[in-house]
Design a protein that fits this description.
alpha/beta; 2 domains; 6-stranded parallel beta sheet; two-stranded antiparallel sheet; 8 strands
């Protein structure tokens, strides 16, 4: 397969540059909610027991997820928290939601790690591809990921970032990839996108004419009818097999 020589390289974030799934998301969500619940208890708030509190969270989350799948409109954890608080008759002001979210997200923050080859690959690519960006689906506020990009030394390599929680639409919606191409300053066909999910990260960009490379994640379920001829890598450093450097 002939190597690509795009004018801009655009990355996904989770499971592509940084690992967010050291703990499965459902299990992690329960741990996050419990940490937030304990923060409320420490402040003297009357909140349900852990099992009831987590069940309420799961009920609201199921509705949010279904709506997002159907509409590709993004939802956010802070809004979900606010809705849960309202259902319990708790103060849903930004101050209390922010306090809860800080405790909630601290659980996520502590289990993140950057892949061993992320920075070395970005360093290798940057001289050849001066325009590099990021497009990420996320239910967390943009500031959390900006912190992580800085913390892990990724931020200096990126010329722009798009997070679905801010953009309000999630991959594979074509608008998010069109916006990425606009920010890169090139046509979609002159960019390449790298991510770990088939629907969001291959079909999504391909739908606007943007070439894609799938980073295969162990344990991830991929469609049985996924084309055999798509570009694939097992780790980020293998991008040199597909991109001219």
């Amino acid at each position: 397969m002939e190597k690509l020589h795009p004018r801009a390289v655009i990355f996904d974030l989770g499971s592509t540059l940084i690992e967010y799934e050291k703990v499965p998301w459902d299990e992690l969500g329960e741990l996050c909610m419990e940490n937030g619940r304990l923060a409320l208890l420490d402040r003297g708030y009357d909140v349900p027991a852990r099992k009831e509190f987590v069940a309420l969270h799961d009920e609201f989350r199921k509705v949010c997820r279904k709506r997002a799948v159907e509409s590709l409109e993004e939802w956010s954890v802070p809004q979900l928290i606010s809705d849960v608080f309202e259902s319990l008759g708790l103060d849903s002001s930004h101050e209390l939601v922010d306090l809860f979210f800080e405790a909630y997200y601290d659980v996520v923050r502590k289990q993140l790690f950057v892949y061993d080859d992320t920075l070395s690959t970005l360093e290798l690519l940057k001289p050849h591809y001066p325009v590099m960006g990021l497009v990420s689906n996320t239910i967390f506020p943009e500031w959390t990921h900006k912190e992580e990009l800085e913390r892990f030394g990724i931020e200096p390599f990126l010329d722009f970032t798009i997070f679905s929680s801010t953009f309000k639409l999630r991959k594979p919606h074509p608008a998010i990839f069109q916006q990425a191409a606009n920010l890169a300053g090139f046509a979609p066909s002159e960019c390449v996108y790298i991510g770990d999910r088939y629907l969001e990260d291959v079909e999504g960009p391909s739908g606007v004419g943007m070439p894609a490379i799938l980073k295969v994640k162990p344990g991830r379920e991929y469609p049985e009818d996924m084309p055999e001829d798509i570009r694939r890598i097992d780790k980020l450093s293998e991008l040199t097999n597909h991109l001219v450097v």
